[in-house]
Design brief:
Length: 201
């Protein structure tokens, strides 16, 4: 991938590990990446299985002073950030620079709600997970291990979707008006279009 402006990736219905590995590669290549809707990312396996695995992870702590780490993040965005950190060799300067290029968010906050969002086809659940297999949403797992903002993010997302729908309807109406105007002026514009076509436009 050629380096471009920060890429905004919509994590909804992507498999956790597969998406993170693609993101890690791009970060190491120098690309800035923003991950939104981390709470809608999925992990293969049932909720009970993933809760058990997270409980085992929670037990890993420093014996003499647990406040020194390892730290067990409870929000989906930080869980994803930590997974990517483990894939970029973060103890080297190159890895530190790479993880600095990553931003992760629950929901789609202000600047990114008006930016084109992309998906990673190679990491999509519908492409990679066999139909009928169980899977867990990151938001549900996080909610069960102590994340307190699932309802808040959900309500903010509902508001954002409502605003987006209003914008889309306006855009559709404007496009219809433009098409109608072009159709009405088709006869007048025929000569102009011929000249423009000859000039290669």
């Amino acid at each position: 991938m050629v380096l471009e402006k920060p890429i905004v990736i919509d994590c909804r219905d992507h498999l956790h590990g597969r998406l993170c590995s693609v993101v890690a590669k791009e970060l190491l290549a120098g690309q800035k990446i923003v991950l939104v809707r981390c709470e809608d990312m999925v992990i293969s396996g049932s909720l009970v299985r993933n809760q058990t695995k997270y409980a085992q992870f929670r037990k890993k702590r420093m014996n003499t002073n647990p406040s020194r780490g390892p730290f067990h993040f409870k929000s989906p965005a930080r869980m994803v950030w930590r997974t990517v950190r483990g894939m970029v060799h973060q103890k080297s300067a190159r890895g530190q620079a790479a993880i600095g290029r990553l931003s992760t968010f629950e929901g789609i906050p202000h600047p990114y709600d008006k930016v084109k969002r992309k998906v990673i086809p190679a990491a999509l659940r519908v492409v990679r997970l066999k139909p009928g297999r169980k899977y867990t949403k990151m938001g549900d797992l996080a909610n069960n291990v102590g994340w307190k903002h699932q309802e808040l993010v959900s309500s903010l997302e509902d508001k954002r979707r409502a605003k987006a729908e209003v914008f889309f309807q306006k855009k559709k109406a404007a496009a219809a008006l433009k098409a109608k105007a072009e159709e009405a002026a088709a006869g007048d514009l025929a000569k102009v279009n011929e000249v423009l076509a000859a000039a290669g436009h």
